[in-house]
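queue> holo job accepted (iron/sulfur cluster)
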Amino acid sequence: MSDSVLVIGGGVCGIQAALDLGDKGLKVKMVEREPSIGGRMALLDKVFPTNDCSICILAPKMITCFNHPNVEVLTCAEVVGVKGKAGDFKVKVRKKARYVDEDKCTGCDACTQACVLAGRIPDEWNQNFGTRGASYIPFMQAVPRVAIIDGEKCLRLTKGKCKSPCLEACLRNAIDFEQEDEVVDLEVGSIIVATGLDMYDPTPVTEYGYGRFANVIHSMEYERLINASGPTGGHITRRSDGERPKRIAYIQCVGARDVRSGHPYCCSVCCMYATKDAMLAYMHHDDTENYIFYTDLRAFGRGFDEYIKRGADEYKINYIRARPGEITEDPVTKNLFVWYDDTEGGGVKSMEVDMVVLSTAFVPPRGIEELAAVLGVELDEYDFFKASDDLLAPMDSCVPGIYIAGACTRPMDVTDAVTQGGGAADRAAQAIAQCGGKPPAKAGAGDRR
Amino acid sequence: MAEPEIVAFVCNWCAYAGADYAGVSRIQYPANVRLIRVMCSGRVEPSFMLKAFEDGADGVLVGGCHEADCHYMSGNVKARARVEETRSLLDLLGLGGERLRIKWVNANEGEVFASEIADFTSALKSLGPNPLKAAKPVTRGKPPVLAEIMARTNTNLCVECGKCTASCPVSRRLASFSPRMTVEMSLEKMASEIETGPQLWECLTCRTCEERCPYNVRFSDFIREARVEAQDLGLDGCPTQSGQMYSWMRMMARDGLSQQRTGWADGFKTKARATSKNDIMFFVGCLPHFGLSHRHVGADTLGIATNTLAILNAMGIAPVLLADERCCGHDLLFAGEPEAFEALARRNAEAFKKAGVKRIVTACAEGYQTLAVEYPRVLEDWDVEVMHISGLMAQAVETGNLTFENDLGLKVTYQDPCRLGRYMDEYEAPRAVLGAMPGVELVEMEHHGPDAVCCGVSSWISCGATAKSIQMSRLAEAKATGADVLVTACPKCQIHFSCALSGRVPLERSEVEIPIEDLTSLAVKALGLSLPEPAAKKPSRASKAKPPAKAARKKSAGKAPSKASPGRKGKKPAKTPAAGSKKKTGAKSGSK
Ligand SMILES: Cc1cc2nc3c(=O)[nH]c(=O)nc-3n(C[C@H](O)[C@H](O)[C@H](O)COP(=O)(O)OP(=O)(O)OC[C@H]3O[C@@H](n4cnc5c(N)ncnc54)[C@H](O)[C@@H]3O)c2cc1C
Ligand code: SF4
Ligand code: SF4
Ligand code: SF4
Ligand code: SF4
Ligand code: SF4
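queue> job finished
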């Protein structure tokens, strides 16, 4: 019998669950695959519907979570085995070597600058717009703010030869090339899965030319470009010439509501975030023309319709009801032509723009099948985690004691992910109580607030 | 025998007047002829002649003015060329070219007219009746109703997003044409407006819209099925060459014909029946026929057939060739005649079975799609594996059974035929074959793979200004790659592009003019094969078609060919042979 809860995934949803549980006095083990917690939201610029700075509101939560006395965070870690039942799960976690001692590293950045590969490796945390070295810190606000050495790129680790200036640069002797992957055994009473979402790779939608045309990007790339802590310091620039795009087209439902791509569902968030993106472009430069090509505007939440209306009225966003057929490129200027059938005005038209942003579908995170197999829980037809009852038990998986929350259950926005995180925390605490474990502490007890 | 029936197309100025003169001069001649007066013999298209035979005429006579007497300069000379071509076609069909004659008759040559009729009548008596006369034409079934078509083609799932229309090469040029609007009309149950509207015949059934429609609305299938009812209403959307192809295709669907159509293959290793070791058949399809009907645009489709045989022989395959093979039926199926298509399918299937054929290779994208997908759909016990020559070659290249040795020193670009690409999801095999040819560098056009643009005409429907415009921009795209040759893997692509270039072009010629060659022709050159001498005269005149090999253009050797494959979203349930291409499976996309 264990009083601990395992939270898999350290996005905003998992963080909320961990904080709620920790505040209730329960012990939490958080397993995050990446070197930093924070998930998708840590990389966004602003968030609708409030247009708050995303990292500004998330970073405090990330830090509180990491430093919470009841929460232990394992990064670079994945769950590889689960045995037992509610109240008594035996969990195996594989923690990949970071080659940096987390307790010693201060995140001073000396090694990352000293690395011989600095500036030579595309930075996936910046959607490959920027570069990093083999030793790097994922992003400025990473938690824990600790360097990591990329075992697949580092010359010493791969080829055995490098003068390793990183070692010398580190005044804390934190770098440890002897570190090995380790398996950690955990005992927990219940489990919350909050592994979030991935973005659909629009390359197969060949008609939109992603990967072929320099100035066709997807919305996650856009988020990094317009982000002040992103690779361009918040300046949206064209990949082809570094110029600022003055006319931007956003194409909705790319790979979403698309039977052919295997993702027939609506992602429920992209109509809103595209509006946000266009607002941001306008806020940066009010001579930017924004065109959102949509099939239906799915602005379903409280205040969402008003948000769209504000977009049209105050930010002069042009909403065009059409799903473009294809994008072609001017070989000289690298400008793009969006070909669309104006379903309201009528007729096939082409619009010249400087940049196209594809609002791509939310898809289940990579590795979800393996994780589901390890947990013994079911996936739905689209490979999201399946609830035992969509209406009445949306956070219960099909296995007692294992709960699902956030964007790994269906596409959702931050508000919903946080709501589900809190809900799942309650369910997980209840499970432990029912198994004879520690009852959730009374409100207020151990409250950090 | 019953008296022969002759249909005579006679020109107003000479032959008709001559017949009239015979009448007023009371010159006797057999009453076997029905005269149809035309303003000029040049008005008589092969479709007229073929239609007469299709409807049971035993003989057809074209009568015109003597050479140099034509009232329209050269109509009669053109008529003669057409008659020549059509006689060859009749030979191929096994009806016999002798049943078609052309005769110059002056207005005062009543005697000449009368004796020609007498002579023709007696010749036809000894030939016997047109074998099609006794055979019933294929009976039409009940056309599908709109609701059924909609359910089968998912039009009721449409969200009216317009992606189809924005993707369509026709809509981009013809404002009145919109697949979205047509689908919307179906949702509003406007059946008769759809069936009688021009939308129905402008569609190229190229599947570009379908490839991109997020809701899997199968628009080209919708069009195909809606055309059935239109045909019943007597609408056929103005087919090219006023439908001569349909005539010969429909004839092949009937009893009575007994073709001996393999004369062109003399000198190659072929056989009439499959053996246990060698059970591959080469389905030739209409290549010899198109070679005749489209010689004038410079397309050499018979060359595709001879090249394919040469390649197969070089691979150690002596394929089965059927002397009485029928048209695959593709064009009739898409033109709204599913019954004739099925009749053809049944005849062919029976013949394949009789010959013990288990595997078929085609050199034509449409035949490939039809045999591989449409035959199993309508035939209960179809168990033949179907390959396109590109797939077979790719396979042979991979196993080392086919090695290209000649360095062609060519930069080429490749036209994905709709039927091979979007219909059959085969993008890799032709590229693999090109990639295996030394000195051949493939440069892709802006639109390639699933985004390739159709050659502008499909199933002999709607060849007009829109088609020409599509062809011009496609050719310009090909030209812009800097390639020396535009390679295709479908005889129709070759025909339509050649046709576009055969007349006046609306652009600078240098912007669009590019040699067009079939993949098999390039393969023969890269293999260094020499073809047997053109077959002897008997029995087919098709052998008149020009020998295909043109000297390869020597250029500095190209770089390694592109291995890139634009295939996408493995999703078509195509019954694909084990061709050298690996199909992608799983609808799920990768993610980042
Ligand atoms: C471009 C874009 C713009 C957006 N804009 C907005 C907006 O403006 N407003 C808004 O409300 N929402 C927005 N969203 C949605 C928002 O990002 C999500 O709602 C939110 O991130 C979901 O939180 P989550 O914790 O469920 O998932 P995530 O944030 O995806 O976090 C999941 C975490 O789990 C980890 N993980 C995954 N698999 C495993 C595993 N097997 N083992 C361990 N850990 C694992 C991941 O590394 C990640 O850290 C946007 C999304 C995108 C893509
Ligand atoms: S060993 Fe070399 S490559 Fe590896 S992190 Fe250090 S400096 Fe970079
Ligand atoms: S490993 Fe050392 S040098 Fe690198 S960030 Fe950490 S403390 Fe600084
Ligand atoms: S939210 Fe909007 S853009 Fe996203 S899938 Fe739904 S309709 Fe398309
Ligand atoms: S693309 Fe498909 S869903 Fe969109 S309008 Fe066309 S048929 Fe309808
Ligand atoms: S099949 Fe081709 S021509 Fe017909 S509507 Fe679709 S895209 Fe247009």
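queue> Residues A 8-14, 31-34, 39-41, 44, 47-48, 78, 194-197, 199, 219-220, 223, 269, 273, 276, 365, 367, 371, 406-407, 412-415, 417 surround flavin-adenine dinucleotide (ligand 1) (CB under 6 Å).
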